[in-house]
User: Fold these one by one.
Assistant:
Number 1:
Amino acid sequence: MRALPSAHRIVVKVGSSLVTNDGRGLDHQALGRWAAEIAALARLGREVVLVSSGAIAEGVARLGWIKRPHALHELQAAAAVGQMGLVEAYERCFRQHGLKTAQILLTHDDLADRTRYLNARSTLLTLLSLGVIPIINENDTVVTTEIKFGDNDTLGALVTNLIEADALVILTDQRGLYRADPRKCPDAEFVHEAEAGLPELEAMAGGAGSGVGTGGMYTKIIAAKRAARSGAHTIIASGREEQVLTRLVQGESIGTQLTARTSRIAARKQWLADHLQLRGTLTLDAGAVRALREQGTSLLPIGVTRIEGEFHRGEMVRCLDPAGVEVARGLINYDAADSRRILGLPTGQIEAVLGFVDEPELIHRDNLVVL
Ligand SMILES: Nc1ncnc2c1ncn2[C@@H]1O[C@H](COP(=O)(O)OP(=O)(O)O)[C@@H](O)[C@H]1O
Ligand SMILES: N[C@@H](CCC(=O)OP(=O)(O)O)C(=O)O
C-alpha cells in the first residue's frame, strides 16, 4: 500500500545534494518545481512542511568563495549568509502560487526541551492552519554537529514527530535506497518497500556520495526509523523525478517506501505513556472526566478542581477523577502557577487573568492519553 495518497500532513525534506548547483549556489529552477508541486498539494487540502538544506552552499556562492570551507566557524558564517538567499528564493517561488511562507530555524535541542517542543509545535500547527508553508532548516549558528554530519534528515524526522505528520518524503539525488551504494555498486538491487527500522537496512546504507550532501543514505534510514516511532511512513525518492510529489500522492510507486508498523495515534499515545516523567496531578470534575472519556475532547481549565505539584509548560501531569482514580495523562500547556490561577475558569477568561493566552485548553487532546 502506498502511503502518500492518504497522507494529510506531509513533511518534505530536500537535501543539499539537490538544492544546489554542484554546491555553488541554489538551483532556482528546481526550487520552483517543488514549490509548484507543493502549492498543488496545498490546493488539494494537504498540509505540507518543507525542510530544506542549501544555506551553506548558497552562502559559499554569495561570499564569492570557490569551494566549501572546512572550518566550522566559516561554515556557520556561510549558513547565516546563505539562509537569507534560501528563504528569499522559496518566498519568491511560493508567492507565484499565492502562498505565504515562514522561516523556522531549529536545533535538535529545541525539540528535546519540553517547553520549546510545545512552542515549536503550536507555532507550526498555527502556520499550517493559516495556510502558510513553513520552511525549516537547522539553526547552524548555534549548533555544529549537524553541519559536521550533514544531517537535515534527522531534523526532518524530528519535525515529523513534532507535528505528527502522516508521512516524511526525503527527496535526494538517487531514486531511493539500493541494497548497496549505487555509486560504488552500479548493479545494486533497488529496494521498493521495507519496514522502517529493520536492522538490515542500516547495513545497506552508505555515507554521502556527492561531496555536497553529507549524511548519505544512512541518516535517511535512521530518519525513517525515527519517523516510524510517531507512526509516519517515509518515502525516499529522487527530487529530479518529473512531478515526483504529485505522482506519489496519486499513488504511483516511486522511490523506496519505508513503512511504519504502528498507527500514528497508537504511536503517539505509547510515546506519551512511556517517555515522560510525571510532574503534577490535576483533579477533574465529573463533567470533564466524561468529556475526556466519551468524547475524546481536550481538557479545559473549567473542568479542573485541584492542582498539585510544580511543573512547567510542556511537562507531563496526570488527571484524576473526583474519587482519585487516574483517568488520563498529558502534556500541560501552562506552568503550575498559571494553571492554578485559571483553574475552574471558562477559556474566555484566561487572557484577562494571565495577561496572555498560550493555548485555549489546559491539555490539548493530541497530547492526552486517556487510560
Ligand atoms: N544503499 C544506498 N542506496 C542509495 N544511495 C546510497 C546508498 N548508500 C549510500 N548512498 C549515497 O547517499 C547519497 C545521498 O545522500 P546525501 O549525499 O547525503 O544526500 P542529501 O544531500 O540529499 O541528504 C547518494 O548520492 C548515494 O551515493
Ligand atoms: N543546514 C545545512 C546543511 C545540512 C545538510 O547538508 O543536510 P543534508 O541535506 O541532509 O545533507 C545547510 O542548510 O546548508
Note: The CA atoms of residues 231 and 264 lie 4 Å apart.
Number 2:
Amino acid sequence: MHNLVGSMPHEALRNLASKYGPLMHLKLGEISNIIVSSPEMAQEIMKTQDLNFCDRPSLLFPRIIAYNGTSIAFGRYRDYWRYVRKICTMELLTIKRVQSFRHIREEEVSELVKAISQSEGSIFNLTEKIFSITYGIAARAAFGKKYSYQEAFISSIEEALHLAGENYIGDLYPSIRVVFEMTSRTKAKLEELHVKTDKILQDVIDDHRNRRRSGKCEEEGEDLVDVLLKFQEKDSEYPLTDDNIKAVIQDMFIGGGETSSSVVDWAMAEMIKKPKVMERAQAEVRRVYGNKGYVDESELHQLIYLKCIVKETLRLHPSVPLLVLRENKEPCQIKGYKIPANSRIMINAWAIGRDPKYWDEALNFKPERFLDNYSIDQRGTNFEFIPFGGGRRMCPGIAFATPNMELPLAQFLYHFDWKLPNGMKNEELDMTELFGITIRRRNDLCLIPIIHHQP
Ligand code: HEM
C-alpha cells in the first residue's frame, strides 16, 4: 500500500513488477488484484483465457455514472451487454458511419486552425483547444448538432473521469460498501455530476424523439442518438430503455473525446522535444498536400510517417494506461500461478510499452521503429503494443479515433511551424503526467505558432 500512495499507479506498479515479476497478486482490502506487466501474461488474459477474463467488476463509478454498469465499457459480460456491443460495432462505429462524420471533423479542425492563425506569434494554449474540438466532434457525431449545454456536459464528464482515477476505499470492501457509501464525499460528488449529465442526455433524447416524429431526421441525416432510438422502436429481446441509450451515448462521448485528444496533445509535445521528427512529419504532409492550401481527409492514408508518430505516441502514452479493469468468473491458473475467482485484473499497457525487453531504446520517442516494422499494429494481436486492449473487451472505437488524431495533427504540421515560449529550449519541455482514468499532460502545452501555409 505504501508503495502506491501518492504516486502514479501505473508507474508504482511498474516499479513493483520489476522486483516481483510480470504477474503480481496484490491484496487490497478484501480484493485480489492481479497486475499484469508482460506481453506473455497479457496474451493469457486477452486471448488464451479471454472468455474467463472478460467481465468488469462492479465499482462505484460505473454504478453511478454509467447507469448501474449498463454501458458497453463498464457492463458485465451478459447477454444484454453482447447485444449493445453488437449494435455499437455493427451500427455506431463502422467505417461507413465514421466516414459520414467527415464533414464534422473537417469543419471543426479548420475552425481551430483559423483561430490558431489569428494568434500567430503569440502564446497559444494548444491543449485546451485540442480537447475542446475533439469533444466538439464527439458531441456533434453523437447528438447531431452543437447544443448550448455541451460545455457543461463536457466539464461534468471530465470531473467525473478525474474522480474515477482515484482509488475509492468502498470498492476495496464490497461486503461493507454501504457503510463507506453513507459518508463518502466521492459518491456524493459523482451523484451530483450524474444528475447534471443525465438531465442533459435526457433532453437530447427528447429533442431527437420529437424531431423523428416530425420527420426532420431524414432531411438532417442520422446521428448516433437516432440510430439508438431506431433500435428502441424495434421489437427486440432486449428492449432499450432511455437509460440504456444514455449509457451508450456517454461511452461514445468519453471514448471519442478524452482518449484521442490526449494522444494529439502528447504527439505535439513529443515532436516539439524532437525537432527532427517534426521536420520530417512536416515535410511529409507538405509534400502530400502540396499547394492545395488545406488539409482534408482525402489523402490521410498517404501520411505513413504521421501514422508511425501516432503509434509511437500510443506506445509511450497509452491514453488508458492500465486499460479498463477486468474480472474473472472462475478460479484458474496462469503459467502455473493460481488466480482466485472474482479477482480484479489490471493490465499495465503503459509499462509493457516502455519495457526495454521488448523495445529498443524504449524511452526514446522514435517513430521510425514502426516504419521498419509497419506490421506491428494496435489491433490487439501484438501484445507488446496494446493501447486499445484486446480480446472480447477490446476498444471498438479505433476507426472513429484514427481520423480524430490524424486530421488535427496533419493540419498543425501543414499550416504552422511551432516554437516554445519564453526562449524555453525544446529539451526543457515538461512531460509530467496527470493520472485519471486516462493520462493527460499535467501542464497544458502552450506554443507559439508561425504560419507556413495561411489557412
Ligand atoms: C486513441 C483513442 C482511444 C484509445 C487509446 C482507447 C482505448 C481503450 C481501451 C484501452 C479500452 C479498454 C480495452 C480493454 O479492456 O481491453 C477501451 C474500451 C472502449 N472504448 Fe476506446 N479508446 C479510444 C477511442 C475510442 C473511441 C473513439 C470510442 C468511441 C467513439 C471508444 C469506445 C470504447 C468503448 C465503448 C469501450 C468499451 C469496450 C468494452 O468494454 O467492450 N474508444 N478503449
Note: Residues 70 and 244 are 6 Å apart (CA to CA).
